[in-house]
Each structure stands twice: as structure tokens, then as C-alpha cells.
Amino acid sequence: MLKVSKVDLTSGSSFSPGGLTVVIGPNNGGKSQFLRDLRSKVATPRAHTPSISSADIEALPSWHGLLDKLASNLKLDDKGNLIFDRLGIDLVKSEHIRHHQSVLQPYMSGESRQSNDSQQQSALEGFGYFFLANLGTETRLNLIARQKAAEQHIVGPSSVAAAMQAAAPEVGDWINFQIRGAFQSDLIVDDSVPFQIGLVLGDAEGLPTHYQDRKSALGALRKAEEQGDGVRAFCGVVTAAATTDRSIVLIDEPEAFLHPPQALLMGRALARLNKIGAQVFVATHSAEVLRGIIGETRDVQILRLTQTDSGFHSRLIQSSDLEEITKDSLLSSARVLDGLFYRGVVIAESDSDVAIYRRVLEQIDESGSIHFLNAYGKSAAIKMTDPYRNMGTGHAVIVDFDILRDGSEFRRLVEALGGAWSSYEGDYQRLMDDIEAADRPEDRLAAADIAIQEMLAIVRSDRLPRDRFNALRYPLRSVKDKASAWSELKRLGREGLTLGGRALFDNIEAECARIGLFIVPCGEREAWLPGIVDYSRNKSAWTEAALAAITDGKLQDDHPLRAFMIRVRNFVLA
Fold first, then answer.
1. What is the residue-wise DSSP string for 432-498?
2. Which pLDDT does position 118 carry in this prediction?
3. Which residue range(s) make up the domain with 202?
4. pTM for this structure?
5. Are residues 228 and 356 in the same domain?
6. Given 44, 394, 397, 416, which residue has the most CB atoms within 10 angstroms?
7. Rounded to whole angstroms, how far apart are CA atoms 565 and 396?
8. CA separation for the pair 500, 497 (Å, rounded)
């Protein structure tokens, strides 16, 4: 058998694959390309490939032993061709491979077999194809199709069903453990039709033991090949991967045709394949598949690929880092893991913030390459930045102006994004001093007194009690607002500062933007669209009206909100 012992990527990094390697990343990031390139490096090692510069392939137990075993399966025709017939790389159709013996003889002869790179490359070009299984989306639904029971010229099983029939009982038990979890049914080999072999779904333990009764019972069960795409795909991938004699298995988009719960179970099954023996490489777009894998094993290598005009970029991610995300109630509920399948991530403070900023960005960039997360507040945003920073995923945080109110929280967010607090501390303290010096508590007290008098007038009025309670909402909020200078600053943002304070804020804001922290300069979300959707304390009504206005194209190209989101996008995708 063959084993991929090392992969050198064109990005400049290298890694040594274990039993399971999972390739993730955004759309068009290079995941499927990586599998195609790995296939080429095994079967045609001299070929140029975009994502892999070279791959070291080992023969187990040795190249001599491997070629000797292959030679025992070769046949010679009357034209001097060595013939090797078996299921093709997709495990569906048989392929008939011919090489003239004069071409292959040097590698079948012990005296001329050398353990150097040139000999190994030549051996791979002749035989590497035999050790690959490629379970791609194009052929996946046909893996469990009914086939001829046997093809005499084929070396090995002539179908996945035949391979399952020939497999050890524990392999069949393993397959059905996975399939019962997904579909509450066993996958059973159906050999009741003469000269054919197929797979059916049912209760294996309930089948009669008498031949004729068993034949009738099998004929009454649901044929696997006639089930929905999800059932066929799941059964096909799991069964083929578990029964194949190929030592390198490539699986592209195992989530194809599956609902999210089935994709999760597929991930678990792929993780358990480590116990079967093949070296498995999986490329997936699905966070559910990834959750299933890392929830089942740490014995996995995770390669994140992205592609830009300058080429491929790669990063190896520790499975322990991802496991922490899945086990953390906040990070898992916020679907932080999903961000790994996008080119970048934007974290905002609330669902409404996410809705507004995403809608604006969609009008700027329709690629859908940025994932938005609701942090449920500023403190949680701090927690969410760590995974992306550790895994090399571009990310930014959008916060309201009042992040500056709490120096401790502001500092923690700066440092979470990789900033040095010493670069901010001086300007921040001077800005706080300027805000305090500009504050006029007597004015706020006078405004609060007016609001209190309004409240008393409402309480003493002759309105119905329920009407009086409803009318008290605004003056109650007003009293609370007047008690803090920050209530006005949150609404006005930069414009509520003195000239000196604005200069200090501009310095702080520019320094923050360099690390991916974007402070809303107008104060908060509801202050972005004056003249289009005026400021309102009714946040849900404002958000609904703002979304409608943005969708209707009422933001000009040079609108401050669009310019703000362009800055965010450019940082995340840089």
C-alpha cells in the first residue's frame, strides 16, 4: 500500500498527513483543487499542480514488496502487454489498464529497482493509480448501484456491494453502526437475484436464515439504489470508504445531498475511519461535517486553504482549538466555526447590527465571502476574536461609540485583536479628560428636572391607569439618559465632542482600524442615516425602516455608512 508521508504546498508550508486530513476554507479557496493535485502527485508525480509543489509517497512495507505483489496480479496478453483490470478510481466502473512489458519490466525486476526518487516516480506513474479511491460528487450516487455479482477479469471486488459482502463481519457491523445512526436501518447485501449483487435497507437481525425465505425477504426490502439522494450518498461514501482496498481515499464534499444532521453524522463516520486503515483526505464546505469530525477525534489534521490573485495561502489548524469552539456554549451557538468557511468574518454587537451592516456590504460586494456574527454585546466580541486570530482567519469587530466609556473593556478588546495598549493609552486618557471637562452636570440636572416634572404630570393626570403607564416610558428613559453624559455621546458620537476631543478620537479610531476594531463614528447604528431614516429610540422600527431604505438603493455611493463598510471589507479580506 501507499502512504502520503509529506506534502509541500505552493504557499510555502509543509505538513505530514496522518490517517485523516480535512481541508476547509472559503468557496474557491482551493479545497477541491488540493484533492485533484494530490491525486496527480500519486498517479503522475512529475505533473505540475497549482496547490502542491511536491509530495513524498512511501510504499509499505517497501517498494520492492509492493511491486512484487502487483506483479502477481498482472496478466500478459499476446501482444506483450501487461494487463491490470480492476474497479477504477471512482469504485464504480471497471478499468482495463495496459502497459507494454518493456516499459514496466525495469520496475518488476529486483536487480534494477533502486530506491531513488526517479525510480519511485516511475513506479508511481505505472502503478500509483491502483492505490487511489476518489469518492467525488459526480459518481457518489452510483456507488451502491446493483452490479454483476462477479466479473472474472476484475482483480478484487467488482462493486462496493461485492466488497461489503467480502469484508470481515466487524467491517459490516461498523458500516451499519453509522447507517443506523442516520437512517434507523441496516444496509444489507442482497444476493437474491442470480448473477447480481446489490444493497437493501432493512432489519438485518429480522431476516430469515432459510435460503428461500431469506431470498423472498430480501426482495421485499427497500433497494438502496432507489432511495433519495441523501440516503444513497451517505450509504455509498461510508460503505465504499470502509471496504475499499485502496490505501489513499479522497472524498470531496461529503456533505453533498445531505441535510445538516446527516452531515454531522457523516463527519463522525469519517473520523471513525481512522480505525479502518486507509489514509483519508476530505475536502468540505460544511461546518456540520467539521463539527462531527472534531467532536469524535483529535487525531486529525485540519488544513485551511484560501486563494487570492497571488496564489494559495494555507494554515494548519489544531483540532484542539476547534474543539474548544464546539464545547463553548456561546461560541457554538453563535456558529463561530462557520466563519472558517468564509474568506473573512465581521463581528457586530447585535442581530440588528448584523442585519444592517450585512445588507450594506451585500450591495458593495455580492460575493458572499464574509461571514457575520452576532456577539450579543461587547464582552462576547472579545471572546470571539481569539479563535479567528489563532486560526489565521481575517476578522474585524464593529462596536458603538460607547466602547470608549469603559476603559477596561476597551483595553481588553484592543489587546484581543493584537493591539498594544501603550499605543492607545495616552490619547484615550486625554479624550476621557476632555469629555469630563466639557461635561456640564448642572445642565443635565436641569434637563432631568424637566423630565421628572413631565412624569409627575402624567402620574397625576386623569388618564386611564394603563394609558398613564404607557405614557411614562419616554420620560423615564429621558431621566436615565440625562444622568449620564454618555447617553448624548452615544447618540451623537464624534460630533458630540469638542474640537480637541474630535482630534483625539480620530487618532484612536485610526489606530483601532489598523487592528480590525471599527468604532461607529456617529455613535450607534440608529444614527447612520439622518435624512433617510431619522434617529429613533424604537430600535426594531428603525432597523426595519433602514433595511427597506438600503434595499431600495437610497444610500449614495459616497454615503458614510458605505464608506465605513468598504473599510471593514478591505481590512478583513486583506
1. HHHHHHH--HHHHHHHHHHHHHHHHHHHTSSS-HHHHHHHTHHHHHHHHHHT-HHHHHHHHGGGGS-
2. 63
3. 142-243
4. 0.85
5. no
6. 397
7. 11
8. 8
